[in-house]
C-alpha cells in the first residue's frame, strides 16, 4: 500500500533549469568563461551540483583558476541564484502539480522533497507550499549527488516509510534509475522515450492527474 510520495524539486515541482542556467550564464559572462549551450550540454551541466557545474565550465574555458577565485565564483553563483529565487511566485509551479499534491495531502499521504538546489526551503516558501511536506532534504549539503540512491532513502527514513510504500516522482533518467535501485516505485515526469526504461510509469505532466490513476497504473491497489 502506498503511504508516501517523494518529489524531486527540480523539473517536477518547478522548472529550476531556467533559473540554474540564467545564473550560470551571468557567471560565464562575469568570469569570461565559455558560454553555455543549453541544447547540447543540458545533460552535462543541469542536475549537477554547483561545484560540478562550475568545474565543467572551467574545464571548457581552459583557464587556470586558483582556490580563491573558485571561492569567489561559488559566491557569485549563490548570489545570482538568490536573486532569481526572490522573483519566484506560486505561478512558477509546474502546471497542476499543486492540485495533485493537495489531493495527496488530503488523503493522508506523507510527502517529501529531495533537492540539490541551494536554498530549497526559500524556494518552497516562495511557492507557498512548504507546509505541505513532512520531509525536505537539501542533499548538496549532505555531500552526495542529486541522483543518489542514498538521497531518496534519507527522505523515506525521515518519513518513516519503506521504499515499497513510497512513490518517487523524477524527471531525469539518472534520478529515476537511482530511485529504482532502492526499490521505490518510480513515476517519471517527462518524455516516455527518455524515462520509460528507468520508470515503472511515465506521465508527461500533472494535467488532470489523480492519485487513483497512478495507483491503478502501478498495480498497487
From TrEMBL:
SUPFAM superfamilies: HAD-like (SSF56784). Transmembrane segments: none annotated. Signal peptide: none annotated. Keywords: Carbohydrate metabolism, Hydrolase, Magnesium, Metal-binding. Gene3D superfamilies: HAD superfamily/HAD-like (3.40.50.1000), Putative phosphatase, domain 2 (1.10.150.240). Its cofactor is Mg(2+). Pfam families: Hydrolase. GO terms for molecular function: hydrolase activity; metal ion binding. Belongs to the HAD-like hydrolase superfamily. CbbY/CbbZ/Gph/YieH family. PANTHER family: 6-PHOSPHOGLUCONATE PHOSPHATASE (PTHR46193), HEXITOL PHOSPHATASE B (PTHR46193:SF18). This is Haloacid dehalogenase domain protein hydrolase. It comes from Haliscomenobacter hydrossis (strain ATCC 27775 / DSM 1100 / LMG 10767 / O). The lineage of its organism: Bacteria, Pseudomonadati, Bacteroidota, Saprospiria, Saprospirales.
Amino acid at each position: 500500500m502506498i503511504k508516501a510520495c517523494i518529489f524531486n524539486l527540480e523539473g517536477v515541482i518547478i522548472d529550476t533549469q531556467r533559473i540554474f542556467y540564467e545564473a550560470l550564464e551571468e557567471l560565464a559572462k562575469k568570469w569570461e568563461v565559455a558560454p553555455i549551450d543549453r541544447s547540447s550540454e543540458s545533460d552535462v551541466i543541469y542536475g549537477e551540483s554547483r561545484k560540478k557545474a562550475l568545474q565543467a565550465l572551467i574545464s571548457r574555458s581552459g583557464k587556470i583558476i586558483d582556490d580563491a577565485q573558485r571561492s569567489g565564483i561559488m559566491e557569485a553563483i549563490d548570489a545570482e541564484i538568490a536573486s532569481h529565487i526572490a522573483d519566484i511566485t506560486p505561478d512558477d509551479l509546474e502546471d497542476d502539480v499543486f492540485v495533485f499534491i493537495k489531493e495527496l495531502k488530503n488523503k493522508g499521504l506523507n510527502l517529501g522533497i529531495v533537492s540539490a538546489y541551494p536554498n530549497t526551503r526559500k524556494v518552497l516558501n516562495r511557492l507557498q507550499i512548504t507546509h505541505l511536506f513532512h520531509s525536505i532534504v537539501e542533499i548538496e549539503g549532505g555531500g552526495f549527488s542529486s541522483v543518489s540512491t542514498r538521497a531518496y532513502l534519507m527522505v523515506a527514513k525521515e518519513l518513516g516509510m519503506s521504499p515499497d510504500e513510497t512513490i518517487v516522482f523524477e524527471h531525469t533518467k539518472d534520478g529515476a534509475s537511482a530511485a529504482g535501485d532502492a526499490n521505490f516505485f518510480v513515476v517519471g515526469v517527462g518524455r516516455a522515450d527518455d524515462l520509460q526504461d528507468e520508470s515503472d510509469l511515465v506521465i508527461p505532466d500533472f494535467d488532470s492527474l489523480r492519485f487513483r490513476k497512478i495507483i491503478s497504473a502501478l498495480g498497487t491497489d
